[in-house]
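To assess whether ligand presence alters the predicted conformation, the chain was also submitted together with molybdenum atom. Input:
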Amino acid sequence: MNADYVARKERWARKMAGQEKPTVRSADRLPPGQRQVHNFPVLDLGTHPEVPLDKWELKIHGHVENPVTLSWQQFLALPQFTDTSDFHCVTTWSQFDMEFSGVAFFTLADLVKPKASATHVFFKSHDGYSTNNPLDVCLDDDVLIAHTWNGQPLSSEHGGPARVIVPKRYAWKGAKWVREITFLDRDILGFWEVRGYSNTADPWTEDRFS
Ligand SMILES: Nc1nc2c(c(=O)[nH]1)N[C@H]1C(S)=C(S)[C@@H](COP(=O)(O)O)O[C@H]1N2
Ligand SMILES: [Mo]
């Protein structure tokens, strides 16, 4: 367990307690090659699955001590988390100050208890999409499964009922209409990662394609 992990978890705990001061945003918060937009464009494979809340499930399993399948009610009964972050799409638009509410990845990890063998996380969606991240990237104070955007239920076109938000990566690393989260002991590439997009996807180094 590294010191950086502890610092991130402490920051998340302060956010959960409402004690973390808003991040001071520098003027140079636009990553290289990006332009700021003021709308929320829709980007996906073209289908917007409609998932009724009484049919919605989130399966979380793999290299964990306590696999779970959450109903919508069980998901909402978990500690809720609101955070503001910037959103960077690889097609060069960024939107600042996106307020998302949902369940923090830290909360899900505390629930399922990743085994020591878990190193990567694979996300699957209702539209056939998938994406992957190192577990360490998911265990950050700003990563969440969001059901609400700017105080409104997340619309179907933006991945509602619930989608993943990984602010420090290009937005394709956040699965809309998420239905399954698998903890793995190795890396498996997702939909865009096998099609030439970078596996690491860091906006600050313009890490767009592999
Ligand atoms: N399920 C699913 N999630 C997805 C995608 C997708 O096609 N399907 N597209 C990704 C890409 S490339 C981007 S830029 C963001 C766009 O999210 P938005 O449509 O809410 O702007 O979702 C990501 N998550
Ligand atoms: Mo994207």
